[in-house]
Write a structure and sequence with these properties.
Elements: E1 4-7, H1 11-23, E2 30-33, H2 36-43, E3 57-60, H3 69-78, E4 87-91, H4 96-104, E5 109-112, H5 118-134
Parallel strand pairs: 1-2, 1-3, 3-4, 4-5
């Protein structure tokens, strides 16, 4: 089963999302990486992620130390073997430049990351309802030789 890749540097945010995901009828497992460098290693199946399955969907934080979410998004969408994977930006930023820039770089959706609590639960449920019930996801592509 292809996973959902969660790229999130905040442990409290990631832990809250993982708890919520366990209560939702997600049809896929959730794999978390903590930063942009590990996200790219996972996506390109490098190092400890050499045997990682390509994700069916990516939930990507924008503002992380080192390689930012915008850089991960740009790299992913420039790669013919990875660009069809839907990327949902999940950020606490409401700056118009972040939203517009994410869409310009190829994001499929931009969700505001609320505080941990009922709003986060509602956002996760809405994400689940759209991406795993209403939308049809592309088949995850195999890496090119």
């Amino acid at each position: 089963m292809k996973p959902l890749l969660l790229v999130e540097d905040s442990d409290p945010d990631a832990e809250a999302l993982m708890r919520i995901a366990k209560r939702l009828p997600l049809p896929v497992p959730v794999v978390r990486v903590r930063d942009g460098e590990n996200a790219l290693d996972y996506l390109y199946q490098r190092g400890e992620y050499a045997d990682a399955e390509r994700p069916v969907l990516i939930l990507l934080d924008l503002h992380m130390p080192g390689i930012s979410g915008r850089e991960v998004l740009s790299t992913l969408k420039a790669d013919p073997g990875l660009r069809s994977i839907p990327v949902i930006i999940f950020s606490s930023s409401v700056e118009a430049g972040d939203v517009d820039g994410a869409y310009a770089d190829g994001a499929n959706s931009y969700l505001f990351k609320p505080e941990v609590g009922p709003q986060l639960q509602a956002t996760a449920e809405a994400l689940h309802a759209f991406w795993f019930k209403a939308a049809r996801l592309p088949a995850a592509q195999e890496p090119e030789a």
